[in-house]
Specification:
- InterPro entries: DUF6491.
- The chain has about 130 residues and is of the alpha+beta class.
- The strands form two sheets. It has a six-stranded antiparallel β-sheet, with no helix packed on it. A two-stranded antiparallel sheet has the order 1-6.
- The chain is globular and about 40 Å long.
- The N and C termini lie far apart (about 60 Å).
Amino acid sequence: MTRSALTLLSIGVATLAACAQQAASAPASAASSGRECFNARNISSFTAQGESTIDIQAGVRRYYRLELAGVCTNVNWARKVAVVTRSGSSWICQGFDADLVIADPGIGPQRCLVSSVRRLTDAEARALKYYK
């Protein structure tokens, strides 16, 4: 290989390593601040709690309440939702990390900004009958 090709290859490897390190450290830094993060890929179910609140399950017996910035019409009737991160990472730790996307056949996809994220306690999840 030529010297310039080796230089470009080493820059590319260093960039990938930096990106991987940053993505891996995001949940660790959030954990040290007391926040509990979840990976958007682990969401398996949701339950609307009105037009501005949604509960999601992300992992085994891990439930989170997402508060939306304003009213998100049709969330009560949605059969499917998507949680899309805004940062490029798959981790959601706090409000403004994600959007809730609802497919509406009449007007198309509706995006609703997530304003806060909170993990539900086991007692809260049991009270809502999420635990089976």
